[in-house]
Structure formats: structure tokens, C-alpha cells
Amino acid sequence: MPPGRSLLRQIFRRRARPAAVGCAAATVHQVCEALVPLAIGLAVDRAVDQPFLSAVVVAVVGVLLLFAVLAGSAAYGYWLLDVTCLREAHHLRVTSAETLMRVDDARPGRATGEWMAVLTSDARAASEVIRVVGLVVSASVGLLVSAVVLLGIDVLLGVGVLVVLPFLVVGMDRLGPWIERRSHARQQTGGLAAGAAAEFVAGMRPLRGFGGVPEAVRRYRGVSRQSLDASVGAASAGSVATAAGLLATGVLLVGTAAAGAAMAVNGRISIGELITVVAMASFLADPVRNIAAAVQQAAVSRASAARIEGIGGASGAGPASDAAPADADLVLIGAGAGTGSGTVGPIDLTVGAGEMVGVTAVDPRQSDAVAGLLDGSVTPVAGAVRWGGTELADLDRAAVRSRILAEPHAVHLLGGTLTEVLDTGRGTDPGTLAAALRAAQTADVVALPGAGAGADVGRLLDDAVQDHGTDLSGGQRQRVALARALAAEPPVLVLRDPLSAVDAVTEDAAAQGIRTLRAHPWFRTVVVTSSPLVLARCDRVVFVAADGAATVGTHADLRDRPDYAAAVLR
Fold first, then answer.
1. Mean of pLDDT values over 166-192
2. Alpha carbon of 553 to those of 336, 540, 556, 559: distances in Å?
3. Hey, what domains does the chain have and what are their CATH numbers?
4. What is the largest CA-CA distance in the chain?
5. How do residues 468-518 score in pLDDT, each as one tens digit?
6. Distance between CA 220 and CA 192 in Å, rounded?
7. Dist CA 81 CA 90 (whole Å)
8. What is the reported pTM?
9. Is residue 385's pLDDT more than 80?
10. Radius of gyration (C-alpha) of the chain in whole angstroms
11. Which residues contact 177 (CB under 8 A, 6 or more apart)?
């Protein structure tokens, strides 16, 4: 099945009822519009044949009633289609964002800004397929009614229109694949440009620090130029489709009007019928234009749906097994992982009850690979990763994510107050939160009372914070994020450089706080870091050398190795 078709079918199944009702109302509107020329022609013939005021009044009232039905059905039908499209776009944004946050392999190598473009413009464009169907169905029925009316006036004239219309519609449809390719390229390059812009803005400080702004500008200009070229190409394709629709309607209008005028001169049709033919030819431009616009939008919707499927497709194949028990050991058996520049492993390691294991390497990518093996975000290329005796990859993803918390190095603080920022979403009680804040050494950020662990700390956390905690220092943001992770109390916690922006004294105290708080039979902790202070607090350390070979030992044992000392001592 071509990319995007499956998602479009799901959209129609979800919105079948409102889409059908809106489509029916839009069809009534088009039928009434198609009957307007006939009503006007009949009114003229009636006035000519029966020149009485009552006959004229009846004809005018009939036309007005037709317009009332026309306007009412149009208002309701197109309103319902608009609402349905907006609701579906919202649904696509929410479900896709949820998948992105839950499933690691749902985001294969795309930047955050690019995913933002997918969740906004692509979600809206994909939902527009509902309106496309309404346009096509209503326009097709309108054309059919027009052809029937013309057949009733003159068989030859009606047959001519019926023969020409399919060619026009098929010709419009032939433009669809070409427009789809151009639209896909435009959306793809636009997402890349948005992603590059987001990355450059986020990294502006380090770019200025090492003088990388000119190179960043050069790269952004490159992707921006590609986006511009693709947008121009897509706009050109859309213009061609619009021009083709106008040309087709113009030819149809001129041909039908000329044929009707010739028949009226020869006496084959009446004056009223001539008015109907000319007005009908003018009306035919509307449904043909609608079909041309629908073909163009359908191509855009298919391209957008294909990009959205890149998110949702990864979440469809869910494993059958539940997660391991909360107190189960996490075991690496000869496990290896690829880093892009080589392979890490094999690693034999058991993260036991209450243990705190450090991970460090010569190359940071190697450390990330080992951490990925432990949190399930990296598939082993050799060996196995087991939790509670079951392969980690065979466990239910949602259950694993609820029990293995992988806290990234990049800090994201969401909320307007400290209470909201520290919300774990797991119903953490105030005593647990207070203990986590103390362990993370946040006394300079959150003022905790000297009472016991069960104290109510909620009322002390109502201070406002700026968006993403920008009014806090880097070290303060790190410690608040660390406290939030500790307060969640996950059975397995994987931390990536959680204390890289704090001073040595605070770092040592926080490392001891992590070890003490997580020294529980239900907890297992992994810390990816190159800090000797943190590694010294770990029960064991996994060190990956430059060649990918992994060694497990204590910090005291490993520091005699020159490569380990060079990697961690400072």
C-alpha cells in the first residue's frame, strides 16, 4: 500500500458519521446550485407564456426557497466539515505527540523542529482529506445534475457535456501524483529547515563561544534555500493545477454557451432554456474548480499522512509480555551495541537490588550506547538484555517506560510554579518529594521545613518560575530535574550527566544523596557520567575503552588504568 493511505483510511473510519453528514449537506448545496439555472429559466418561460403577476410571484418565491435551502445546507455542511477537520487534526497531533514521547524508535533521526512541523502543518493537511471527499462528492453530483438538466433541454447538448466532463475530471486527476511529489518535497525540506533553526537557536550560546555562528548561518542558508526551491516547485505545481481547472471550465463555458445560442437561434430551445443553458455553463465552472482544488489538496494530504505514519508506524507492533516485577534484576549477558563508529561490548553485568552503577567511556557515544542497552532504547547487536529473566525487547513498551525512567541530560522544566515543575505525574506524596529535594541538594532553590519526611511541602513550592526555568541557573535546573526523577521512584533509574553544571562540593553531596535515597531493594540506579566524584559513590563502574572493550570494576580499581584516569580524572 502506498505511504499514507493507511492513515487516511483510519481518518475516515474515525470521522465516518460527521464526514458523511457534512458531505451530504454539501451535496444538497451543490444540487441546489445546479438547479438555480433551471429555476431561473422556468421562471422566465412562465413569465413569457403566462404574463400574470401571480405566476411571476410564484416563480420568484420558488427561486427564493431554493436559495434558502442552498444557503442553509452550505452553511451547515461546510461548518461541519471544518469542525471535523479541526478535531481530526487535534487528534493526530495528540496521538502522534504521545507516540513520540513514549516510543524511542518512533523518531528515527529527525530533529525536534522537524517533528514540530509534522505535528502542526502535516497534521492539519492530513485532516483536510475529509474536506476533499466532500468537495469531490458534492461537485460530482452537481455535475451529474447539470448533465441531466441539459439532457432534458436537448439530448445532443446533454450528451456533449457528459462526454466532455469525464475527460476534464480525469485530466485533473492525472496531475495528482505530480503535485503530491512536489508537496512532499516542500514539507520535507520545510521540516528540515525548522529543525535546523530550532537547533541553532537552542545552541546559540556555545556557537558564539567557539565561533561557530558563521558556519551555522551557512548551513541554515543551505537548508533554507532547499526549502525555498521546494516551496516554489510545489507552488508552481499548484498553479498549473489551478490554471488547468480554469482553462477547462472556460472551454466548457464557451462551448456550452455557443451551442445553446445556436440552438436558440434555430428554434430548438426556448428563451428560458437558453438562459438555463448559459447559466448552467457558468455554474459548471464551480464544481470543476472544486475537483481541481480537491485533487491538489488530496496530493498534499497523502504526502502529509506519509510523514505522520513515520511516527505512528513504530508503535503498532507492541510486544505481548508484561513488564518485569519491580524488584527484578537488570542483566546484560554478553550484550553489545553499535555506536556508529564501532561496537561496544560484550558486557556482562547485573544491576542488583539497591545498587548504583556508573557508566563512563573514552567516547561519550559509547556511554550512551551502554545506557541505551539498560533503558531499552538501544537494541543489542549481540548478547541479550534481560529484566526479570525476560528479554527487555519482549516486554510491553508502556509498562517498561513506566518502570524504567531514562532521565536525559538536557533539562526540561515544564510548569509555571515549582510545584508544577516537580510534578512526576505519579501521585508522589509530599514526604517523598521532600526527601528527593534534599538528596538533590536543592536547598538554594526550594526552602524545605526542618520537619520530618511527612511534612506538607506543597505550600512551600508555590513560587513562580519562568518558562523552562530560565530564571534558574544551569546547576539549579539540573538539581530540580534530578529531584523530580528521584521523586518518581522508578524501579530502574538511568541518569545522564545529572550534575555536570554544579560545583564539586554540591556534586559530591548530591551523589551521596542519590546513593542513599536509592539504596532500597526495589531500586536500581545507573549513572552515565565522567565525574570521579559521582563514580566514586557508585558500587561498580562500567568503563568502555577506545576499542569498545568493556570492563566492570570499582572506581578505586579502575583509576589505575591510564585510559580510565584520562577519561575521568580532572
1. 67
2. 18, 5, 8, 10
3. 5-313 (1.20.1560.10), 330-568 (3.40.50.300)
4. 114
5. 777 788 888 899 999 999 999 999 999 999 998 889 999 999 999 999 999
6. 10
7. 14
8. 0.58
9. yes
10. 34
11. 299
